[in-house]
Design goal:
14 strands; binds uridine-5'-diphosphate-xylopyranose; alpha/beta; six-stranded parallel beta sheet; Rossmann fold
Protein backbone atom coordinates (compact mmCIF):
# COMPACT_ATOMS: atom_id res chain seq x y z
CA UNK A 1 0.00 0.00 0.00
CA UNK A 2 1.38 3.40 -1.01
CA UNK A 3 0.19 6.87 -0.06
CA UNK A 4 -0.66 8.59 -3.32
CA UNK A 5 -1.68 12.17 -4.11
CA UNK A 6 -3.37 12.92 -7.44
CA UNK A 7 -3.47 16.53 -8.62
CA UNK A 8 -6.33 17.17 -11.06
CA UNK A 9 -9.68 15.32 -11.16
CA UNK A 10 -10.49 15.27 -14.87
CA UNK A 11 -11.21 11.88 -16.40
CA UNK A 12 -7.51 10.97 -16.26
CA UNK A 13 -6.81 12.11 -12.66
CA UNK A 14 -10.07 10.83 -11.24
CA UNK A 15 -9.73 7.46 -12.98
CA UNK A 16 -6.10 7.16 -11.88
CA UNK A 17 -6.82 8.06 -8.24
CA UNK A 18 -9.93 5.94 -7.98
CA UNK A 19 -8.39 2.87 -9.61
CA UNK A 20 -5.30 3.09 -7.36
CA UNK A 21 -7.63 3.33 -4.33
CA UNK A 22 -9.59 0.34 -5.66
CA UNK A 23 -6.27 -1.55 -5.84
CA UNK A 24 -5.67 -0.87 -2.14
CA UNK A 25 -3.54 2.28 -2.12
CA UNK A 26 -4.39 5.24 0.08
CA UNK A 27 -5.30 8.10 -2.26
CA UNK A 28 -6.00 11.82 -1.89
CA UNK A 29 -7.29 13.58 -5.03
CA UNK A 30 -7.02 17.36 -5.31
CA UNK A 31 -8.56 19.92 -7.61
CA UNK A 32 -8.76 23.72 -7.63
CA UNK A 33 -12.51 23.54 -8.40
CA UNK A 34 -14.33 23.63 -5.02
CA UNK A 35 -17.74 22.72 -6.48
CA UNK A 36 -16.29 19.68 -8.21
CA UNK A 37 -14.61 18.50 -4.99
CA UNK A 38 -17.95 18.85 -3.16
CA UNK A 39 -19.72 16.75 -5.81
CA UNK A 40 -16.99 14.09 -5.79
CA UNK A 41 -16.93 13.95 -1.97
CA UNK A 42 -20.64 13.15 -2.06
CA UNK A 43 -19.88 10.15 -4.28
CA UNK A 44 -21.03 11.63 -7.60
CA UNK A 45 -19.01 12.03 -10.80
CA UNK A 46 -19.71 15.29 -12.67
CA UNK A 47 -19.08 13.83 -16.14
CA UNK A 48 -19.98 10.71 -18.09
CA UNK A 49 -17.42 7.93 -17.59
CA UNK A 50 -18.59 4.33 -17.58
CA UNK A 51 -18.24 2.57 -14.20
CA UNK A 52 -16.40 5.43 -12.49
CA UNK A 53 -19.21 6.57 -10.17
CA UNK A 54 -19.63 3.06 -8.79
CA UNK A 55 -15.89 2.80 -8.12
CA UNK A 56 -15.70 6.28 -6.52
CA UNK A 57 -18.53 5.36 -4.14
CA UNK A 58 -16.88 2.04 -3.28
CA UNK A 59 -13.52 3.72 -2.51
CA UNK A 60 -15.08 6.55 -0.49
CA UNK A 61 -16.87 3.94 1.61
CA UNK A 62 -13.71 1.88 2.12
CA UNK A 63 -11.93 5.08 3.21
CA UNK A 64 -9.17 4.55 0.61
CA UNK A 65 -10.12 7.68 -1.35
CA UNK A 66 -10.46 11.32 -0.22
CA UNK A 67 -10.99 14.56 -2.09
CA UNK A 68 -9.48 17.93 -1.13
CA UNK A 69 -9.41 21.42 -2.58
CA UNK A 70 -5.93 22.52 -3.65
CA UNK A 71 -2.81 20.52 -4.50
CA UNK A 72 -1.02 21.66 -1.38
CA UNK A 73 -3.62 19.96 0.82
CA UNK A 74 -3.00 16.59 -0.83
CA UNK A 75 0.73 16.03 -0.73
CA UNK A 76 1.81 16.50 2.91
CA UNK A 77 2.41 12.81 3.64
CA UNK A 78 2.33 11.28 0.16
CA UNK A 79 5.01 8.96 -1.18
CA UNK A 80 4.04 9.50 -4.81
CA UNK A 81 2.27 12.55 -6.32
CA UNK A 82 0.65 12.24 -9.76
CA UNK A 83 0.23 15.36 -11.90
CA UNK A 84 -2.94 14.93 -13.97
CA UNK A 85 -3.72 18.54 -14.88
CA UNK A 86 -4.81 19.75 -18.33
CA UNK A 87 -2.31 20.79 -20.98
CA UNK A 88 -4.37 22.97 -23.32
CA UNK A 89 -3.05 24.26 -26.59
CA UNK A 90 -1.25 27.57 -27.16
CA UNK A 91 -2.04 29.64 -30.26
CA UNK A 92 1.11 28.30 -32.00
CA UNK A 93 0.06 24.65 -31.54
CA UNK A 94 2.41 23.94 -28.65
CA UNK A 95 1.15 22.66 -25.28
CA UNK A 96 0.47 25.19 -22.53
CA UNK A 97 2.37 24.06 -19.44
CA UNK A 98 1.07 26.73 -17.08
CA UNK A 99 -1.21 24.34 -15.11
CA UNK A 100 1.63 21.85 -14.60
CA UNK A 101 4.01 24.60 -13.54
CA UNK A 102 1.46 26.12 -11.14
CA UNK A 103 0.71 22.73 -9.52
CA UNK A 104 4.43 21.96 -9.27
CA UNK A 105 5.18 25.30 -7.61
CA UNK A 106 2.30 24.75 -5.20
CA UNK A 107 3.55 21.38 -3.96
CA UNK A 108 7.32 22.00 -4.18
CA UNK A 109 7.97 22.97 -0.57
CA UNK A 110 5.40 20.57 0.89
CA UNK A 111 6.47 17.24 -0.62
CA UNK A 112 7.96 14.91 2.00
CA UNK A 113 11.68 14.14 1.63
CA UNK A 114 12.39 11.55 -1.07
CA UNK A 115 8.91 11.74 -2.64
CA UNK A 116 8.33 10.86 -6.30
CA UNK A 117 6.44 13.18 -8.64
CA UNK A 118 4.85 11.40 -11.60
CA UNK A 119 3.68 13.29 -14.61
CA UNK A 120 0.65 11.75 -16.36
CA UNK A 121 -0.42 14.83 -18.32
CA UNK A 122 0.56 14.80 -21.99
CA UNK A 123 3.45 17.21 -22.15
CA UNK A 124 6.04 18.18 -24.73
CA UNK A 125 9.18 16.09 -24.78
CA UNK A 126 11.53 17.49 -22.15
CA UNK A 127 8.81 18.52 -19.67
CA UNK A 128 9.93 16.04 -17.00
CA UNK A 129 13.06 18.16 -16.83
CA UNK A 130 10.93 21.35 -16.66
CA UNK A 131 9.05 19.93 -13.66
CA UNK A 132 12.38 18.99 -12.03
CA UNK A 133 13.71 22.50 -12.55
CA UNK A 134 10.50 24.10 -11.19
CA UNK A 135 10.52 21.89 -8.09
CA UNK A 136 14.10 22.74 -7.09
CA UNK A 137 14.09 19.65 -4.88
CA UNK A 138 17.10 17.42 -5.61
CA UNK A 139 15.70 14.79 -3.19
CA UNK A 140 12.50 14.42 -5.25
CA UNK A 141 12.54 12.26 -8.42
CA UNK A 142 10.32 13.25 -11.34
CA UNK A 143 9.05 10.46 -13.56
CA UNK A 144 7.00 10.36 -16.75
CA UNK A 145 4.14 7.80 -16.76
CA UNK A 146 1.89 8.72 -19.69
CA UNK A 147 -1.73 7.57 -19.75
CA UNK A 148 -3.45 5.89 -22.68
CA UNK A 149 -7.00 6.08 -21.33
CA UNK A 150 -9.88 6.50 -23.73
CA UNK A 151 -12.79 8.60 -22.53
CA UNK A 152 -15.82 6.41 -21.92
CA UNK A 153 -13.71 3.33 -21.17
CA UNK A 154 -11.08 4.90 -18.92
CA UNK A 155 -11.64 2.54 -15.96
CA UNK A 156 -11.37 -0.55 -18.14
CA UNK A 157 -8.29 0.86 -19.86
CA UNK A 158 -6.62 1.66 -16.51
CA UNK A 159 -7.23 -1.77 -15.02
CA UNK A 160 -6.52 -3.66 -18.25
CA UNK A 161 -3.97 -1.60 -20.17
CA UNK A 162 -2.06 -2.75 -23.26
CA UNK A 163 1.14 -1.53 -21.60
CA UNK A 164 2.48 0.67 -18.82
CA UNK A 165 5.19 3.17 -19.76
CA UNK A 166 7.57 4.57 -17.16
CA UNK A 167 10.21 7.15 -18.03
CA UNK A 168 12.97 7.63 -15.46
CA UNK A 169 16.70 7.34 -15.17
CA UNK A 170 16.34 6.55 -11.47
CA UNK A 171 15.89 2.76 -11.27
CA UNK A 172 14.66 2.76 -7.67
CA UNK A 173 11.97 5.35 -8.41
CA UNK A 174 10.95 3.52 -11.60
CA UNK A 175 10.57 0.28 -9.58
CA UNK A 176 8.53 2.07 -6.93
CA UNK A 177 6.10 3.45 -9.54
CA UNK A 178 5.95 0.07 -11.35
CA UNK A 179 5.02 -1.57 -8.05
CA UNK A 180 1.94 0.66 -7.75
CA UNK A 181 0.49 -1.31 -10.67
CA UNK A 182 1.05 -4.74 -9.04
CA UNK A 183 -1.89 -6.93 -9.85
CA UNK A 184 -2.35 -5.46 -13.31
CA UNK A 185 -1.12 -7.79 -15.98
CA UNK A 186 0.54 -5.74 -18.73
CA UNK A 187 4.03 -5.32 -20.16
CA UNK A 188 5.94 -2.49 -18.47
CA UNK A 189 8.21 -0.41 -20.68
CA UNK A 190 10.85 1.36 -18.59
CA UNK A 191 12.79 3.97 -20.49
CA UNK A 192 14.18 7.49 -20.17
CA UNK A 193 11.75 10.43 -19.70
CA UNK A 194 12.12 11.83 -23.23
CA UNK A 195 11.31 8.44 -24.77
CA UNK A 196 8.29 7.96 -22.49
CA UNK A 197 6.95 11.38 -23.47
CA UNK A 198 7.58 10.61 -27.15
CA UNK A 199 5.74 7.26 -26.87
CA UNK A 200 2.55 9.12 -25.85
CA UNK A 201 2.67 11.53 -28.78
CA UNK A 202 3.72 8.80 -31.23
CA UNK A 203 0.79 6.60 -30.11
CA UNK A 204 -1.79 9.32 -30.64
CA UNK A 205 -0.16 10.42 -33.92
CA UNK A 206 -0.25 6.82 -35.13
CA UNK A 207 -3.91 6.36 -34.16
CA UNK A 208 -4.84 9.60 -35.94
CA UNK A 209 -2.88 8.43 -38.98
CA UNK A 210 -4.74 5.13 -38.97
CA UNK A 211 -8.10 6.94 -38.86
CA UNK A 212 -7.28 9.45 -41.59
CA UNK A 213 -6.07 6.52 -43.69
CA UNK A 214 -9.37 4.72 -43.08
CA UNK A 215 -11.38 7.83 -43.99
CA UNK A 216 -9.28 8.28 -47.15
CA UNK A 217 -9.86 4.64 -48.16
CA UNK A 218 -13.58 5.17 -47.47
CA UNK A 219 -13.62 8.09 -49.92
CA UNK A 220 -11.95 5.88 -52.53
CA UNK A 221 -14.47 3.08 -51.84
CA UNK A 222 -17.27 5.49 -52.71
CA UNK A 223 -15.58 6.30 -56.02
CA UNK A 224 -14.90 2.71 -57.05
CA UNK A 225 -18.08 1.12 -55.70
CA UNK A 226 -16.39 -0.86 -52.90
CA UNK A 227 -17.80 -1.33 -49.38
CA UNK A 228 -15.48 0.08 -46.72
CA UNK A 229 -16.83 -2.27 -44.02
CA UNK A 230 -15.68 -5.31 -45.97
CA UNK A 231 -12.41 -3.61 -46.91
CA UNK A 232 -11.65 -2.89 -43.24
CA UNK A 233 -12.64 -6.41 -42.22
CA UNK A 234 -10.14 -7.68 -44.77
CA UNK A 235 -7.46 -5.30 -43.48
CA UNK A 236 -8.11 -5.99 -39.80
CA UNK A 237 -7.36 -9.71 -40.08
CA UNK A 238 -3.80 -8.81 -41.05
CA UNK A 239 -1.98 -9.09 -37.71
CA UNK A 240 0.39 -6.35 -38.74
CA UNK A 241 -2.56 -3.95 -39.09
CA UNK A 242 -5.02 -5.19 -36.44
CA UNK A 243 -8.80 -4.88 -36.23
CA UNK A 244 -9.08 -1.84 -33.90
CA UNK A 245 -9.48 1.77 -34.98
CA UNK A 246 -10.68 0.92 -38.48
CA UNK A 247 -14.13 2.52 -38.37
CA UNK A 248 -14.60 5.39 -40.81
CA UNK A 249 -16.45 8.40 -39.46
CA UNK A 250 -17.10 12.13 -39.72
CA UNK A 251 -13.44 12.78 -38.78
CA UNK A 252 -11.64 12.19 -35.50
CA UNK A 253 -11.90 14.58 -32.58
CA UNK A 254 -11.85 14.80 -28.80
CA UNK A 255 -9.61 16.23 -26.17
CA UNK A 256 -6.47 14.34 -27.23
CA UNK A 257 -5.95 13.38 -30.87
CA UNK A 258 -6.46 16.87 -32.38
CA UNK A 259 -4.36 18.61 -29.71
CA UNK A 260 -1.62 16.01 -29.59
CA UNK A 261 -1.20 15.73 -33.36
CA UNK A 262 -0.85 19.51 -33.67
CA UNK A 263 1.60 19.52 -30.75
CA UNK A 264 3.60 16.70 -32.37
CA UNK A 265 3.89 18.67 -35.62
CA UNK A 266 5.17 21.57 -33.53
CA UNK A 267 7.59 19.37 -31.52
CA UNK A 268 8.93 17.96 -34.79
CA UNK A 269 9.39 21.46 -36.24
CA UNK A 270 11.29 22.58 -33.15
CA UNK A 271 13.44 19.47 -33.51
CA UNK A 272 14.24 20.45 -37.11
CA UNK A 273 11.91 17.95 -38.83
CA UNK A 274 8.98 18.82 -41.06
CA UNK A 275 6.44 16.08 -40.17
CA UNK A 276 4.72 16.17 -43.59
CA UNK A 277 2.93 12.86 -43.00
CA UNK A 278 1.23 14.08 -39.85
CA UNK A 279 0.37 17.44 -41.43
CA UNK A 280 -1.32 15.44 -44.17
CA UNK A 281 -3.18 13.34 -41.59
CA UNK A 282 -4.59 16.52 -39.99
CA UNK A 283 -5.50 17.96 -43.39
CA UNK A 284 -7.34 14.77 -44.40
CA UNK A 285 -9.31 15.04 -41.16
CA UNK A 286 -10.31 18.63 -41.89
CA UNK A 287 -11.35 17.56 -45.41
CA UNK A 288 -13.47 14.82 -43.84
CA UNK A 289 -15.63 17.38 -42.00
CA UNK A 290 -16.20 19.14 -45.34
CA UNK A 291 -16.99 15.84 -47.06
CA UNK A 292 -19.81 15.23 -44.57
CA UNK A 293 -21.19 18.74 -45.19
CA UNK A 294 -20.97 18.03 -48.95
CA UNK A 295 -22.88 14.76 -48.48
CA UNK A 296 -25.64 16.57 -46.62
CA UNK A 297 -25.78 19.23 -49.31
CA UNK A 298 -26.10 16.56 -52.00
CA UNK A 299 -28.79 14.77 -49.96
CA UNK A 300 -31.01 17.88 -49.97
CA UNK A 301 -30.60 18.36 -53.72
CA UNK A 302 -27.59 20.68 -54.03
CA UNK A 303 -28.15 23.69 -51.79
CA UNK A 304 -28.37 23.90 -48.01
CA UNK A 305 -29.72 27.44 -48.06
CA UNK A 306 -32.77 27.53 -45.79
CA UNK A 307 -32.89 23.73 -45.49
CA UNK A 308 -33.60 22.04 -42.16
CA UNK A 309 -30.97 19.62 -40.92
CA UNK A 310 -31.62 17.36 -37.92
CA UNK A 311 -28.46 16.20 -36.13
CA UNK A 312 -28.20 13.06 -34.01
CA UNK A 313 -25.12 13.25 -31.79
CA UNK A 314 -22.94 16.16 -30.71
CA UNK A 315 -20.20 14.54 -28.58
CA UNK A 316 -16.94 13.53 -30.28
CA UNK A 317 -17.83 9.87 -29.83
CA UNK A 318 -20.40 7.80 -27.94
CA UNK A 319 -19.95 7.06 -24.25
CA UNK A 320 -18.78 10.52 -23.22
CA UNK A 321 -20.36 13.94 -22.67
CA UNK A 322 -17.18 15.62 -23.94
CA UNK A 323 -17.72 18.15 -26.72
CA UNK A 324 -14.12 19.31 -27.04
CA UNK A 325 -12.97 19.34 -30.67
CA UNK A 326 -16.08 17.40 -31.63
CA UNK A 327 -16.46 16.79 -35.39
CA UNK A 328 -20.23 17.29 -34.94
CA UNK A 329 -19.77 20.90 -33.90
CA UNK A 330 -17.37 21.65 -36.75
CA UNK A 331 -19.79 20.04 -39.21
CA UNK A 332 -22.73 21.96 -37.70
CA UNK A 333 -20.81 25.22 -38.16
CA UNK A 334 -20.06 24.24 -41.76
CA UNK A 335 -23.76 23.60 -42.37
CA UNK A 336 -24.74 26.94 -40.83
CA UNK A 337 -22.10 28.59 -43.02
CA UNK A 338 -23.94 27.21 -46.08
CA UNK A 339 -27.28 28.56 -44.88
CA UNK A 340 -28.79 25.48 -43.19
CA UNK A 341 -31.08 25.62 -40.16
CA UNK A 342 -29.86 23.19 -37.48
CA UNK A 343 -31.62 21.31 -34.70
CA UNK A 344 -29.67 18.74 -32.74
CA UNK A 345 -30.25 15.96 -30.25
CA UNK A 346 -27.62 14.29 -28.06
CA UNK A 347 -28.41 12.11 -25.02
CA UNK A 348 -25.81 13.98 -22.93
CA UNK A 349 -26.55 17.56 -24.02
CA UNK A 350 -29.41 19.37 -22.25
CA UNK A 351 -31.83 21.59 -24.17
CA UNK A 352 -30.63 24.66 -22.26
CA UNK A 353 -26.97 24.08 -23.21
CA UNK A 354 -25.48 27.36 -24.36
CA UNK A 355 -21.88 26.32 -25.03
CA UNK A 356 -22.18 25.67 -28.75
CA UNK A 357 -22.72 27.79 -31.84
CA UNK A 358 -25.80 29.95 -31.07
CA UNK A 359 -27.42 28.91 -34.36
CA UNK A 360 -27.91 25.32 -33.12
CA UNK A 361 -31.20 24.61 -31.39
CA UNK A 362 -30.91 21.70 -28.94
CA UNK A 363 -33.91 19.38 -28.70
CA UNK A 364 -34.24 16.71 -26.03
CA UNK A 365 -35.81 13.97 -28.13
CA UNK A 366 -34.45 12.03 -31.14
CA UNK A 367 -37.82 12.03 -32.90
CA UNK A 368 -38.91 15.61 -32.20
CA UNK A 369 -35.59 16.84 -33.60
CA UNK A 370 -36.62 15.34 -36.97
CA UNK A 371 -39.85 17.35 -37.26
CA UNK A 372 -39.90 19.04 -40.67
CA UNK A 373 -36.26 18.14 -41.42
CA UNK A 374 -35.01 17.85 -44.99
CA UNK A 375 -32.22 15.50 -43.94
CA UNK A 376 -31.04 13.65 -40.84
CA UNK A 377 -27.30 13.64 -40.03
CA UNK A 378 -26.03 10.89 -37.71
CA UNK A 379 -22.76 12.26 -36.34
CA UNK A 380 -22.17 10.27 -33.10
CA UNK A 381 -22.65 6.51 -32.83
CA UNK A 382 -24.92 6.43 -29.74
CA UNK A 383 -26.49 2.96 -29.38
CA UNK A 384 -30.00 4.35 -28.90
CA UNK A 385 -30.03 5.65 -32.50
CA UNK A 386 -29.99 2.06 -33.78
CA UNK A 387 -33.32 1.35 -32.13
CA UNK A 388 -35.25 4.44 -33.26
CA UNK A 389 -37.88 3.40 -35.78
CA UNK A 390 -37.15 4.73 -39.29
CA UNK A 391 -40.91 4.69 -39.89
CA UNK A 392 -41.47 7.16 -37.01
CA UNK A 393 -38.56 9.31 -38.19
CA UNK A 394 -39.79 9.34 -41.79
CA UNK A 395 -43.31 10.39 -40.80
CA UNK A 396 -41.91 13.52 -39.16
CA UNK A 397 -39.48 14.54 -41.88
CA UNK A 398 -40.15 16.74 -44.87
CA UNK A 399 -37.93 14.52 -46.96
CA UNK A 400 -36.68 10.98 -46.25
CA UNK A 401 -32.91 11.41 -46.41
CA UNK A 402 -30.25 10.32 -43.94
CA UNK A 403 -26.49 10.82 -43.91
CA UNK A 404 -25.07 8.20 -41.53
CA UNK A 405 -21.53 9.49 -40.90
CA UNK A 406 -20.85 6.62 -38.45
CA UNK A 407 -22.27 3.79 -40.59
CA UNK A 408 -24.18 2.79 -37.46
CA UNK A 409 -27.74 2.45 -38.79
CA UNK A 410 -29.12 -0.64 -40.51
CA UNK A 411 -28.87 0.55 -44.10
CA UNK A 412 -31.25 -2.07 -45.56
CA UNK A 413 -33.90 -1.27 -42.93
CA UNK A 414 -33.78 2.47 -43.58
CA UNK A 415 -33.86 1.90 -47.31
CA UNK A 416 -36.92 -0.33 -46.88
CA UNK A 417 -38.59 2.70 -45.30
CA UNK A 418 -37.84 4.64 -48.47
CA UNK A 419 -34.94 6.61 -47.09
CA UNK A 420 -32.23 7.96 -49.36
CA UNK A 421 -29.45 6.48 -47.20
CA UNK A 422 -25.86 7.78 -47.53
CA UNK A 423 -23.11 6.33 -45.35
CA UNK A 424 -19.35 6.74 -45.42
CA UNK A 425 -17.43 4.58 -47.88
CA UNK A 426 -20.29 2.42 -49.06
C1 LIG B 1 -7.56 8.90 -27.36
C2 LIG B 1 -6.61 7.68 -27.29
O1 LIG B 1 -7.28 6.53 -27.80
C3 LIG B 1 -6.14 7.44 -25.87
O2 LIG B 1 -5.22 6.36 -25.84
C4 LIG B 1 -5.47 8.72 -25.38
O3 LIG B 1 -4.98 8.58 -24.08
C5 LIG B 1 -6.43 9.89 -25.47
O4 LIG B 1 -6.89 10.01 -26.82
P1 LIG B 1 -10.11 9.39 -26.79
O5 LIG B 1 -9.83 10.81 -27.14
O6 LIG B 1 -10.91 9.12 -25.56
O7 LIG B 1 -8.73 8.58 -26.62
O8 LIG B 1 -10.90 8.77 -28.01
P2 LIG B 1 -10.75 7.53 -29.02
O9 LIG B 1 -11.65 6.43 -28.62
O10 LIG B 1 -9.33 7.19 -29.26
O11 LIG B 1 -11.37 8.21 -30.35
C6 LIG B 1 -10.78 9.38 -30.92
C7 LIG B 1 -11.59 9.80 -32.12
O12 LIG B 1 -11.46 8.87 -33.18
C8 LIG B 1 -13.10 9.95 -31.87
O13 LIG B 1 -13.58 11.11 -32.53
C9 LIG B 1 -13.66 8.68 -32.44
O14 LIG B 1 -15.00 8.80 -32.84
C10 LIG B 1 -12.74 8.47 -33.63
N1 LIG B 1 -12.66 7.06 -34.05
C11 LIG B 1 -12.14 6.11 -33.23
C12 LIG B 1 -13.10 6.73 -35.32
O15 LIG B 1 -13.58 7.57 -36.10
N2 LIG B 1 -13.00 5.42 -35.70
C13 LIG B 1 -12.48 4.45 -34.92
O16 LIG B 1 -12.40 3.29 -35.37
C14 LIG B 1 -12.03 4.80 -33.63
Amino acid sequence: MTKIAVIGTGYVGLTTGTCFAHMGHEVVCADIDEDKIAILSSGKVPFVEDGLDRLVKECLESGKLRFVVGAKNAVADCEVAFLCVPTPQCANGSADLSFIEAATREIAALLPPGAIVVNKSTVPVGSTRVVEATLERPDVTVISNPEFLREGSAVGDFLGPDRIVIGSENQAAASKVSSLYLGISAPIVVTDPASAETIKYAANAFLATKLSFVNAIAAICEGVGADVSDVMRGLGYDNRIGPEFLRPGPGWGGSCLPKDTRAMVRIAKDAGYDFKLLRGVIEINEDQFDRVVDKLEAAVGGSLQGRNVAIWGLTFKAGTDDLRDSPSLTIASGLVGRGAVIRAYDPTVAADWDGGPSEIEIVDDPLVVCNGADVLAVLTEWDEFRSVSPRAVGERMENRAVVDARNCLDRALWQRHEFDYRGIGR
